[in-house]
Amino acid sequence: MNKPWTKREHANGIAIVAGDLNSANVIAREVRAEHADLIAAAPDLLAELLAAEKIILAMLNVMTLEQKAQVHAKLDKDGVANEGMTRYHERRKALAKAGAV
């Protein structure tokens, strides 16, 4: 199981570490404050994106064409569905950038 990433302030700024107080691996040193929370959340965000992909694909496999059309219309109205309502290619690009696929 991956240890959570946290931010720790120190004399030179902020560091991102993985692990607990007794055994921590430094992920990044001297991180800009405005990026620290996002970097610390990266493993959790990646895990959620991977889970969301499984959920989306499972839902698509059980939805009727009519249900898919209704969802697509709603997402298109909300400005979320570009060329595909599930944003598969955008999601896969982000996962590939993170080295997850």
Describe this structure as you would to a colleague:
By secondary structure, this protein is an alpha+beta fold. It has one domain (7-98). The chain is 52% helix and 21% strand. The chain has helices at residues 33-62, 65-77, 88-97; strands spanning 5-10, 13-19, 24-31. β1 (5-10) and β2 (13-19) form a beta hairpin. The longest helix has 30 residues, at 33-62. The protein is elongated, with a radius of gyration of 19 Å.
Structural class, please? alpha+beta
Q: Please give the count of helices.
A: 3
**N- to C-terminal separation?**
19 Å
Using the alpha-carbon principal axes, give the shape.
Answer: elongated
Give structural attributes.
three-stranded antiparallel beta sheet, 101 residues, alpha+beta, 52% helix
List the topology elements.
Blueprint: E1 5-10, E2 13-19, E3 24-31, H1 33-62, H2 65-77, H3 88-97
Antiparallel strand pairs: 1-2, 2-3
Kindly summarize this structure in a few lines.
This protein is of the alpha+beta class and 101 residues long. It is 52% helix and 21% strand. Strands 1-2-3 form a 3-stranded antiparallel β-sheet, with helices on one face.
